[in-house]
Specification:
The chain is mostly helical. It contains 6 helices and 3 strands. It has a 3-stranded antiparallel β-sheet, with helices on one face. The relative contact order is 0.14.
C-alpha cells in the first residue's frame, strides 16, 4: 500500500513540475513575442515613443521566465539587453544598471546604429571591435549571479515597456571613470552617473 501511495505522490509531483515548466516556457515565449513588437516600435518611432498598450506590456513574471539560468543563446531582445546590463554594470546600484539600458535603448533605431537590441549589442563583432566589450572579450557570457541577473531582467522589462526614465539625457556612449578613451573628446558629455560618464555626438549623429 505504501508503495502505491508513494507512486501516486511521485506522479503528482512530476505532473506539477511538468505543468510549471510548460507554464514558464509559455510565459517566456509570450514575453519574447511582445519584446519584438516593442523594440520594433522603438526603432520606428524613436526612444521617446509613448508607452505601448497594456496588451503589449511585458509582465514581471513573463520577463523572469526568459533565460532563467542565464545560459540561453543571445537571440532575443530580453536576453541581449539583460545580459548587457548584467556584464556592464553588475555590482553597481540599480541606477547604475538602468543607465546601461538607457544607452542601448537610445541606440535602437538611431541613425548609425542597428534597429534591434541584439543588433546594437553585437555591433562591431564582425570587425572584432564590439561596441560593448563583454560581447567580444572571448570569455563565457553566461550570467552567474541569480539576484543580479533577475534585476537586470526587470530593468530590461521596464526599458522595453518604455517605463524606464532616461537618466543619461539621450547618451549614445559611455565609459567607466577609470579609463579615458580617445573617442570621448569628440563627443558632448551629457551626465555622470556613479562610475560612468555619458556622451552624445554634436547634432545627435552617431559616428
Amino acid at each position: 500500500m505504501k508503495i502505491i501511495i508513494f507512486g501516486i505522490q511521485l506522479v503528482t509531483i512530476l505532473s506539477i513540475s511538468l505543468a510549471f515548466a510548460d507554464d514558464q516556457a509559455q510565459k517566456a515565449e509570450v514575453a519574447k513575442e511582445k519584446a519584438e513588437v516593442l523594440e520594433e516600435k522603438v526603432a520606428t518611432e524613436g526612444s521617446q515613443a509613448s508607452p505601448p498598450p497594456t496588451s503589449q506590456l511585458i509582465t514581471k513574471t513573463q520577463v523572469q521566465a526568459v533565460d532563467p539560468s542565464g545560459k540561453e543563446p543571445m537571440e532575443d531582445a530580453i536576453t541581449c539587453l539583460a545580459r548587457t546590463i548584467y556584464w556592464e554594470a553588475r555590482g553597481t546600484s540599480i541606477s547604475g544598471m538602468e543607465v546601461v539600458a538607457n544607452v542601448v535603448m537610445n541606440r535602437v533605431g538611431h541613425e548609425g546604429f542597428p534597429e534591434t537590441v541584439c543588433g546594437v549589442v553585437k555591433q562591431g563583432q564582425e570587425k572584432g571591435a564590439c561596441q560593448f566589450s563583454w560581447w567580444c572579450d572571448g570569455r563565457p557570457d553566461d550570467a552567474k549571479e541569480d539576484e543580479s541577473y533577475a534585476t537586470a531582467k526587470e530593468i530590461t522589462r521596464k526599458a522595453l515597456n518604455h517605463q524606464l526614465v532616461d537618466q543619461t539625457n539621450g547618451a549614445l556612449y559611455f565609459h567607466h571613470k577609470k579609463v579615458s578613451p580617445s573617442w570621448s573628446k569628440e563627443y558632448i558629455k551629457t551626465t555622470e552617473v556613479e562610475d560612468f560618464l555619458f556622451y552624445k555626438p554634436s547634432g545627435d549623429k552617431a559616428k
